[in-house]
Amino acid sequence: MVTGMAAGVLAAGAAGVVIAHAASPHAAKAPGGLALTQTTISRQAVAGSTNFVKVTNNSDKALAVTVKPRPWIQSSSARVVPNRRATLSQVGVNANSFTLAPGSSKDVLVTLKSVPTGGYLYGALEIIGMPSTKGKGLITAYRLIGVLRYNAARASYGLKAGATKIVKNGKSKMLALRVKNAGNTITPITGEVRMKGPLGTRQGSVRSTKVLPGKTVALSVMSANGLPAGRYTATISLKQGTYTTKLTKKITVRR
To answer: How far apart are CA 251 and CA 217, in angstroms?
Structure first.
């Protein structure tokens, strides 16, 4: 999701490097290691606008730190991760590599150098801290993901709905609707659904989901667990900001 911090642990390389990630959107801090203040930069997209973020080394070793603005990749499940193969040319930092002694901090200036033609920019600020002196055994490095949210001067909303299908995930089943964000914001998509079938009507709420502008996701609209085989009619109401739309879909559930 566009609003939080990356989570997880990766192991790589013959030297036994472990990268510890910040796991909370509310505390940008890799335990015992690297910390980041102002985890989200959110403001109107104006060329030349600046913000400071502070990077602090809470470990007992000096860290070689790199800072890179990255675009997001969003999957059909709506999960977002930074694209580590690309950088955001419209965003600059005044220090993209430096060394932090244990207990020290550095303020990094983040500048929106230019505004894309769409009038908005959503991305990530990837910060990695590697021990500057490596010993034997397991080496711990740190990775933090901040959020860059440069909003359009005027929000526009729009959703384009596609096909529905039953999606299986292990033993669980969900009714999913392909939805494209045709607007210029990441305002969450919400909604309601009514599923009418041979045994009556089932109702539910669409889980709030943020979708990057121009991206299409398989929006989970209702649990399909326990649905008997047969033909159903789903009436789906979606909302994003001031925009609402209502659609009807015919669905066949097979054994």
So the answer is: 19
pLDDT tens-digit map of 165-185:
988 878 888 899 999 999 999
Element (H, E) at 28: none
Q: Is the pLDDT of residue 222 over 80?
A: yes
Rounded CA-CA distance 249/199 in Å is 18
Identify the sign of the CA torsion 208, 252, 243, 212.
positive
What confidence category does residue 25 fall into, taking pLDDT thresholds of 50, 70 and 90?
very low
Tell me if 126 sits within 8 A of 81, measured CB to CB.
no
Residue 80 in contact with residue 148, Cβ under 8 Å? no
Work out the pLDDT band at 198, boundaries 50, 70, 90.
confident
Set out the domains of the chain in order of their start, with CATH numbers. Answer: 9-151 (2.60.40.10), 159-253 (2.60.40.2420)
Cα 160 to Cα 126, 189, 216: the distances in Å are: 31, 12, 9
| Beta-carbon contacts of residue 20 (< 8 Å; ≥ 6 apart) | 9, 30, 31, 33, 140, 141, 142, 143
Average pLDDT (68-76) is 96
Tokens of 129: 């801290």
CA-based R_g, the chain, Å: 22
pLDDT of 30 reads 52
